[in-house]
Write a structure and sequence with these properties.
This protein is α+β, with helices and mostly antiparallel strands. It has eight helices and six strands; from the N terminus they run αβββαββαβααααα.
Length: 286
């Protein structure tokens, strides 16, 4: 697989480092009841100055977080936003700031702080390709194991995470991830209908076709991740044979001063092509 194929696996995007805290209004008092070399026992008392305000702060903080996360793909290594949605991200950050600001103006015992840092992820970032494709492979494996175990919750949890992460993939790589999600969710609905509601035994329900389809897609993502990991980030593109020939033909010809009385030169001999050198190229030598 060429480097061009590898780096096309993801879309250019933005890594969003996002933190938020709700501070103040709560105090914790710890009392040690027993402390020995083998055993420690203590009691912690939580005191809230204004329970209603603190509860409102928790709600507003969650609202601010949801605004930013709504335009991002959730991955195991952070939030990622597609580059073509950067305006939406900036608008969401501004709205989240407004939510926090309104609360902080009204609050007397609590304070919400929020910070967002954006970093660029290029489409040819091989580490990003490897990380995202490895995560998709892992999520597909979780769906496959969930199907084998008849665990509907595990299937749906992994499918939801895969749906979020595939936003950062380019077509047709994203289409393969979506197909895996559709296959897994169809099996989850069948399990609910036949096992949870119909009372059938899991052993009587065939899952071979589903698990084979998921395994095929998982192996494809593992191959993408492996190829990205095998290629050094600074490895240059290797020119093709045709590119090398064109580069040779484009070399400038040295300029020679004209002879006032030029002497006719014999016609240059026709170069003899080295057929062995071009044995791998389909050329009509007739």
């Amino acid at each position: 697989m060429s480097r061009r194929t590898k780096v096309a696996a993801i879309r250019p995007g933005i890594l969003v480092a996002f933190t938020s805290r709700l501070q103040g209004g709560v105090r914790y008092t710890r009392t040690d009841l027993e402390t020995t070399a083998e055993r420690s026992h203590w009691e912690t008392v939580k005191e809230t100055d204004d329970p209603a305000e603190h509860a409102r702060g928790v709600k507003e903080r969650a609202k601010a977080q949801a605004l930013i996360r709504a335009v991002c793909a959730r991955t195991s290594f952070g939030l990622l936003c597609r580059q073509d949605r950067e305006d939406d991200l900036d608008a969401a950050i501004a709205r989240a700031g407004d939510v926090v600001g309104v609360f902080n103006i009204q609050a007397t015992t609590c304070h919400i702080s929020i910070s967002v840092l954006k970093g660029r992820v290029a489409a040819d970032d091989l580490q990003a390709v490897q990380a995202i494709t490895e995560e998709l492979a892992d999520l597909i494996e979780q769906m496959r194991k969930g199907v084998l175990a008849g665990d509907v919750k595990a299937i749906r949890d992994a499918a939801s995470k895969a749906t979020s992460a595939e936003r950062m993939l380019s077509e047709p790589v994203a289409a393969s991830a979506r197909a895996a999600v559709v296959i897994a969710r169809q099996k989850a609905r069948e399990l609910v209908r036949r096992v949870e509601k119909g009372g059938e035994k899991l052993a009587n329900i065939s899952s071979g076709a589903t698990t084979r389809a998921l395994l095929t897609r998982r192996m494809a993502f593992l191959e993408l991740a492996s190829n990205a990991a095998a290629l050094p980030a600074d490895e240059p593109e290797q020119p093709s044979v045709i590119d090398a020939i064109r580069a040779r033909d484009l070399k400038p010809t040295p300029t020679v001063a004209a002879d006032p009385e030029p002497t006719p030169e014999p016609e240059p001999a026709t170069p003899v092509l080295d057929r062995q050198r071009f044995a791998d190229i389909d050329i009509d030598w007739s």
